[in-house]
Design goal:
14 strands; Metallo-beta-lactamase, Chain A; binds zinc ion; 5-stranded mixed sheet; NDM-1-like; alpha/beta; 8 helices; RibonucZ/Hydroxyglut_hydro; 261 residues; Metallo-B-lactamas; MBL fold metallo-hydrolase
Length: 261
């Protein structure tokens, strides 16, 4: 368990099996909460940077898997923070039970083994946690100057990534992919094809720093790495979403990355 500052106002919390992230904007926003029973450790890490439980105001859940939503209920009870997530997985977090996919898809033998050893037998139960606010694709949350939710299904149906322009452009990629053995596909997908489309979508964002549920954050040139890894092999051209973004006139900081590939 450790905490490291990765940008002026973003901290990476290594909680053992998974990561959580903290955005420090006077008040604190936590992205994911680790497994059940991690709340004490998370609050210790907050204390180590001079912050108190009361400072935590927002908890953004990327998805319902117990290694991400496990300590949400405890943290909410202790701090009074508001919990945000996508509608598609709200029911699991509120019921306190997160089912495993019937037919998980693995991108390789190693990932299949990791799943069989660590995930298949892990309990699906968490302390039930009421969700305060539902978040949809494209929503800008008025937190820390603006955080955009990006729906990235595939690993799980209601998974959200978060794009945080802030001082540096940071993408919280959740389990859309991981950085365990270098940047790569996640351990498993409920729907791999959908998961690959989600990664193409993420690669259209303009970010320097990428943060993952599993593996260390990439601190430089992360957007270009996503393009090379997740777009380069499959397509020569991916202008659709970038054009759409320009059309909306929103400050979504997306642009065509074609020239970089
Ligand atoms: Zn997951
Ligand atoms: Zn995970």
């Amino acid at each position: 368990m450790s905490i490291r500052r990765i940008t002026e106002n973003v901290y990476e919390l290594n909680l053992g099996k998974s990561n959580a992230f903290l955005i420090d904007d006077e008040k604190l926003t936590l992205i994911d909460t680790g497994e059940p029973d991690r709340s004490g450790q998370i609050l210790e890490l907050l204390a180590s940077i001079g912050r108190e439980p009361d400072d935590l105001k927002h908890i953004l859940l990327t998805h319902s898997h117990p290694d991400h939503s496990g300590s949400a209920a405890d943290l909410k009870a202790i701090t009074g923070a508001k919990v945000y997530m996508h509608a598609a997985e709200k029911k699991w977090v509120e019921a306190g039970f997160v089912p495993k996919p019937d037919h998980p898809y693995f991108t390789g033998v190693v990932n299949r083994l990791i799943y069989q050893m660590f995930i298949a037998k892990a309990p699906g139960s968490i302390t039930p946690c009421a969700v305060d606010q539902l978040v949809s694709d494209g929503d800008w949350l008025p937190i820390a100057g603006g955080i955009q939710a990006v729906h990235v299904p595939g690993h799980s149906e209601g998974q959200l990534a978060f794009f945080f322009p802030g001082a540096k452009n940071v993408l919280f990629a959740a389990d859309a992919c991981d950085n365990l053995f270098g940047l790569g596909y996640s351990t498993f997908y409920e729907d791999y094809e959908t998961g690959r489309h989600s990664l193409e979508k993420l690669a259209t964002f303009d970010f320097d720093v990428a943060c993952f549920g599993h593996g260390r954050s990439i601190l430089r040139g992360a957007g270009a790495k996503f393009c090379r890894k997740f777009i380069g092999h499959h397509h020569h051209h991916h202008p659709v979403r970038a054009q759409k973004a320009q059309g909306t006139g929103e400050a979504v900081r997306m642009r065509e990355r074609e020239e970089k590939i």
